[in-house]
Write a structure and sequence with these properties.
Elements lengths: L17 H19 L3 E4 L17 E5 L4 H9 L3 E5 L1 H4 L5 E6 L3 E6 L9 H10 L2 E5 L2 E5 L2 H13 L5 H12 L3 H13 L3 H8 L11 H9 L3 H11 L3 H11 L4 H8 L5 H27 L1
Parallel strand pairs: 2-5
Antiparallel strand pairs: 1-2, 3-4, 4-5, 6-7
Length: 296
Amino acid sequence: MAAHETTDDAGAPPTVPLEVRIGFAHASAQWVADHLALDVLHVKGAALDPTLVPGRGYSDADVLARPQDVEVLLEELRGHGWDLINSFAYGSSFEHSATLRHRDFGLLDLHRIYPGAGPTPAAAFDALWQERRTTVLGGVRCAVPSRDAQAVLLLLHAARGGGDPKGLHDIESVWTSAPDDQRARIVEWVERLDAGLGFSVITGTLDEHRDDPAYDLWRVASRGGTRWDEWRARVRAARGVRASAAVAARSVLVNVEHLTLVRGRPVTRREVVAEFFDRPARGLREALGRRSGAGR
């Protein structure tokens, strides 16, 4: 998930409204994709059908690419003024998106998968692409999922939001208070996208999926947990021994990208070493804090 974008720099207010900049971010990504003849879908935020959640705000642009095309698109974006500030491996526990920043357009999340949408990302993209619509963002025509598919994606996003107020409002608007016919169409799309596990968070039936390798990932995302809980869930959800080993290895490494983003400058080798030894202590304090809170 992209960091919140507020100003061009710390000392001056933005000269262009954020909503306009985000529109241009979508347009920039679409122009690059068109240049490469690649299919992309614009999701959430400015691309969202305004009748789903009227007045819903946003702070960045989100673009979903075909999984096989994402590395090519990422490289081309970096050649057109987009700087990578968080890679897929460290973007989230689902490792689904990379975050880029443009000097003029702000933040962009480039998705290689949409968390919860099927165990086969390419098939999920194809299903969304088959019933796509178009909308104008930043003066450029951009492909977006159908309205009902957008509703499912919004619910899947809220499902891993840990009960944040914006996500709860999305659930209320799109699902809880929706008419029966809309709910029926949403369920149809859940089945088409093989999104039952993520959607079970919305329906309160997540614990019926304990045997699913990704169950712990959704449990931690939706209900909270320690860093140890998160990394253990990531290892369990990884497909294959090699993938599990790679995730386990990353769990002990310092996320230099995130540290650089937090500090607002390149970090030194000494700072990386200090962070490496400080992380286990923070994790232990976090685990003890949660245990103490549970006891109270």
